[in-house]
Amino acid sequence: MDRLTEMEAFAMVVDQGGFTDAARKMGISKSAVSKHVSSLEARLGARLLNRTTRRVSPTEIGLAYYDRARRVLNDAGEADALVTAMQSAPSGLLRVSIATDFGVGHVSPILGQFLVKYPEITVNMVLNNRYVELISEGFDMAIRVGELEDSSLRARKICETQRRMIAAPSYFKRYGRPQKIDDLNDHKLLHYSNASNANVWKIMAPSGEQRQVRTSGALTVNDGQSLLNAAIGGLGIAYLPSYLYADAMRQGLVEDVIPDLPADIQGIYALYPPGRYTQPKVRAFIDFLVDQFREKGPLDW
Prior knowledge:
The termini are far apart. It is elongated, with a radius of gyration of 30 Å. The strands form three sheets. Strands 3, 4, 5, 6, 7, 10, 11, 12 and 13 form a nine-stranded mixed sheet that branches. Strands 1-2 form a two-stranded antiparallel sheet. Strands 8-9 form a two-stranded antiparallel ribbon. 41% of the residues lie in helices and 24% in strands. The protein folds into two domains: 3-87, Winged helix-like DNA-binding domain superfamily/Winged helix DNA-binding domain (Arc Repressor Mutant, subunit A, Orthogonal Bundle); 89-301, D-Maltodextrin-Binding Protein, domain 2, CATH 3.40.190. By secondary structure, it is an alpha/beta fold. α1 (3-16) packs across α3 and α2 crosses α3 (30-44). The protein has helices at 3-16, 19-26, 30-44, 60-87, 100-117, 169-175, 224-232, 242-250, 280-293; strands at 49-51, 56-58, 92-98, 121-127, 141-145, 154-167, 189-192, 200-204, 210-214, 219-221, 237-241, 255-256, 264-272.
C-alpha cells in the first residue's frame, strides 16, 4: 500500500478519534481506513493505536509517530500547493518599490506592456529613493541599484548600469578639467544625499585600486535627476549611473570627467522576500523586466 495513504489514514483516525469519522473525512469506507492502519502497523512492527469498543487513542509510540507523520503530510500538501500555484496564471495586486529615477525613466514606459500581457495583475508602483522594509511595509518586491546590503531577501539581477563622473562643457570652461582623482578635491562636487556616506565617492583608479574622495559638495540633493540637471547647468561634477546621463551625453550636454578611469559597473536587482517558492505575480514581473532589459548592456543606457 502507499505509504502516504497509510500515514494519512492513521493521522486522520487520531485527529477524528475513531475510524468512522476518519472514513467520512477521507471519503472512503471504514474497512479501507482500518486496512491502511493495519498495514502501517505491520510494516513498522509496532502497535500505534489502542482500540477499545468505545474509543481509539494513540499509543506512546503512536503519538510520537503521529507528530512526525503530520509534518510529512503537511509538507506533502505544501508541495502539491506549490506546483498548483506555480502553474496558475499570475494574478492579484503587485506592490513594488522602485528607485524614482529608474522607475520613471525605464520601468514606467514599459509597464503597459506588462499589464496587457498579465491582465489579472494590478500594479501599485511606489517610487521613492529610500530602502523600504519589504515585509513590514507590505511590498511584494523592490528594484534597487548598486551594491546590496546583507539581508535575508532573495535577489535576481535584472541588468547592469555604469556609474561615471560627468559635468557640462561650460563647467570645464569655467573651472578646468580634472586630470586625476586627486584633482577632484579642488572642484565642485554634486552629492546624492540618500547614499550612505553621501560626501564620499568610491572611485576606481586606473591601477585597479579603489580610492575614496571625501569633500564637501557644492550641492546635495536626494534625487538623481536633479543632480543631472545641476550638472547640465554647469554647477559641478556629478557621479551618476548611465541610465540617467546617457541621453544627455549623447546630446553633448555633459562629458566624462576623467575618461581614463575604469567604469564602475553596478547591478540593478529585483529583491523579494525569502520563501519556499516565488509568488507567480512576482516571478512574472521579474521575468518580464529581465526580458525587456536583456539586450541593454551597461554602456547602452
